[in-house]
């Protein structure tokens, strides 16, 4: 038997060099059982002609496959599937989910309905011409070349142990040191390595904290509106959740109810309104917390993207009693897919968080910790942040101007820049409907209802982010929003 | 003011090129506030002489820093800290854990004592000459070059969205497809993409499963001895845990007690004895499970490292009722630091697992999913697996021969190879003591007590793995264990 040249189809959408694509076709043919041991491969000349590539490309791919014992060479141009090639599965596959013998509804218990997870962030956001989408990386601002360089360095022999080991009891020391010596001092925070835990993004840091500190007998206070991912986390702990209304200057310390065990807040840039908690309010908050023995979780998720005015010291830096747990993230500044964040708190708390993390997921991948630590310590991160904030600040100015020119209403803070603006629709206009209608105009905005404890209260709010839209497109995007608002039938 | 050349100290232990180390020293000097805006840098000639490097190296590093606006060049050879350089932290750092105002013992509640996490796997295992350590990658067998190549490909522009996006509602389609089309069929399993979830390693897959299916009213049965990480996971769910004794052929189906809601097992290679569950027992287990309405979680953690005889079909492949949840991992075959595993089960279960994963950690990093999917689909993975199993099989033969020659007693299975052997000490000899004493001989073995429900029952067992020790060193390592056993004072 010989393998027919027709079984080779070059997938035009596939990545990689021609040579690696040929290699892949052969390897997959063997692994799936389509090409069997001892079968003769098409000659390099024939295959090259069939695929429309040069003969040397095929020869090189074949040589590579011979080296890995997928193929063996015989004589001058004969290639055969090697006797040592891997066997395809021996057992005829059975469908995984056979039968309905199991009542999954019962087995999964009374779990809360899983939230519609794609809300506000459709997968195909890149297809929109005016994507005011929040929290995705902008390829035009990202420092590809140096990130690749740092990854390559982390992939080197020197870092092999850090990449491969099962290091569940400690994090990359270089990354922890960088966070302790550079990231935190800029927030006014001094922390020892045993007061820092690297987490799988800020979400994971918040989750670990909530798991450790809350249960059905405890009460958590959260900002309203606030980060929807947090509400989901708290639901899992079954604690009592009290929403605290947020004003133009963020959380009002006096409104945090007595009996609150843990307060979750975003003082740097309130999520989603962008309000910055004034210094006096920070002191007042700490004072109240001390009086009532409340712990505070400070989610500093977007601190590094500050422009417009100098950042205020973190709550944690003002805390003299060790009652603030600080959550940081590299997701907004590097990219969310990296999944690296950190938790800063007293050593006994961090110790328990580390043990819980080990049970749930062991540790954040060593390779990414090391690559990030190279990127940070070589100063590329700071250089990129400066480019990022410079660009965001320009985009914000354009956005504010366009919004004013078009008569849009801003519903949140305007003084300190993050990566988004919080907006309000005119009376009677549902932001949900607006967002849906705008899809037709290739405009993506995020309806605000999901940020509210009672979604109906948020029906007139929406978020427009400028982290993934170029400056030039902002005016037209805003104009389209305004046009919809003027033309719509909103009853 | 100018920056003194003495403030530059080349750290001999630091990674990277000379140029990048100079860059790093300057960037960190600026970020930490030691070098201030407007200060003059040492001339390239002076700094080069001080550091003992060539002048061009310093010039290139400076040019790089100028490009990123850390420095500015003036005239022909003057460099100054740029006025646009980042500011160091504005606020004097305060110690993170000030005061003891918070009673952390009370706040953390009655959490179980965190287990001593480094047990059996000391961080410095590389310092041992005879490291019979389990579950770490062997740099001599790992395919560095192609892994780097696949990482580079994943870092390319084409994969930017996959690397950076916040893709919490779906996994890398190419990785899922590979698992569905190649990995699972070899286990006899056919699964659709919505029946597969990529997890942060097998540990995370087990954790998600336990969280979804167990609570304080349910009963889990586990193997005894068994995987210690699982016991920790179950403790968190507060379910009832019933240990099921394991014999020479693994779990005995008849011994799974009535009333078991979920049975966790390792049929391919029982952890830690290495026993393989015979085909008849697999059928019997499924039969019992159906009769008692028990769900089975099959942890197939080491399947791909099978040598010695052909693997048996996975339990999941024999399951006609959809009551088996299958856990797989690339940790043992690629490396544990990668943290990639997967969960296979009925779609409604996978849907809930995905929602829970999103709350806890969002998703496994996209970059690693993509790099792994390149490595798998190009066939490098299979080629590496073959090298790995060939080498492990040789090491195992050497190990068995040495153990026999030295009169050591094997306490587990010998017929199917994984990456370790389960051993037993002579009467009266504590494996814990043996392991401790062997440190002096530069030999690392893993005491078995922690695998047992009642640790005292395991005091005579230990595990010796051959995944991180070279073939040549095995005989001497074994000889040293035997010498200790002969010479010891064990009362």
Automatic annotation (TrEMBL), chains A, B:
SUPFAM superfamilies: PLP-dependent transferases, Winged helix' DNA-binding domain. Keywords: DNA-binding, Pyridoxal phosphate, Transcription, Transcription regulation. The keyword DNA-binding applies. Signal peptide: none annotated. The keyword Methyltransferase does not apply. Pfam families: Aminotran_1_2 (PF00155), GntR (PF00392). One of its GO terms (molecular function) is pyridoxal phosphate binding. Residues 16-84 form the HTH gntR-type domain. It comes from the Bacteria. PANTHER family: HTH-TYPE TRANSCRIPTIONAL REGULATORY PROTEIN GABR. In the C-terminal section; belongs to the class-I pyridoxal-phosphate-dependent aminotransferase family. This is GntR family transcriptional regulator.
